[in-house]
Amino acid sequence: MTALELAGVTKRFGRTTAVDDVDLRVGDGELVALVGPSGCGKSTLLMLAAGLLEPDAGRLCVDDRLVAGGGTWVPPEDRRVGVVFQDAALFPHLRVADNVAFGVPRGRGRAARVAELLELVELPDLGRRYPHELSGGQQQRVALARALAPRPSVVLFDEAFGNLDHALRASVRDATARALRAAGAAGVFVTHDQGEALAVGERVAVMRDGRFEHVGEPADAFHRPANRFVATLLGEADFLPGRQSGDVVDTEVGRLAATPAARGEVEVMLRPHEVVFAADPAGTARVVRREFRGATYLYTLRLPSGATVRALVPHTLDVATGTAVTLQVEAGHPVRSFAGR
Ligand SMILES: Nc1ncnc2c1ncn2[C@@H]1O[C@H](COP(=O)(O)OP(=O)(O)OP(=O)(O)O)[C@@H](O)[C@H]1O
Ligand SMILES: [Mg+2]
Question: Per UniProt, which keywords does this protein have (predicted)?
Answer without folding.
Answer: ATP-binding, Cell membrane, Ion transport, Iron, Iron transport, Membrane, Nucleotide-binding, Transport
